[in-house]
Design brief:
single chain; alpha/beta; Rossmann fold; Short-chain dehydrogenase; EC 1.-.-.-; SDR_fam; SDR
Length: 234
Amino acid sequence: MKNKVAYITGGTKGIGLGIAEVLHKHGITVAISGRNKEDALEVAKQLSSMEAPVFGIGSDVKNFEDEQNAVAEITKKFGKIDYVIANAGLGIFKPVDQLSTEEWSSMIDTNLTGIFHTLKASVEELKKSEGYFITISSLAGTNFFENGSGYNASKFGAVGFTQAAMLDLRKYNIKVSTIMPGSVSTHFNGNEPSEKDAWKIQPEDIGQLVLDILKMNPRTLPSKIEIRPLKTSS
């Protein structure tokens, strides 16, 4: 896997950073993006080693041109892209009658349209490499809950989009999977990770799962994966 190149959106913290750390540790060339270019460059600098530099890029997945430019930068620097992990996402949790149109749009545009932008920008490179496209959705993409109307809509959509894209792209030998985590110890929704989150899935656990998927025999395609903590908080 040392000759492989991975692009991870939302790679400056949380799940995206956990994935970047694991892939980098296992010899994969990693490019990460975030809405703030300075943050992406700083995290990339921290992750980089003499043997394996990490490439930081500023890109807002809501903007298709940003994703086009990110893919162009990566291919110019490394010559190809083998793996794309569409991880960027956000959540706003309010009753539907209190959710603003701006808040609705920010979730749909990031969590759903952003995935489309990332795939649309990278799909021709993935055809060349017969690569892998992975989306990070959520158990909220199959389980609805109170105060989650906008988030549920975006994550249900992300799962449906990814599954349909899998059927469209497998004829090109592109593998497509969606990962649907439950509670993960991140800064998501204003959480501050601490010892109280020890029961949750850790970002590096998702990174290990991504690595395991990438290492599977290419004849096998785990198209939709639910992952949850073994136990609930007590």
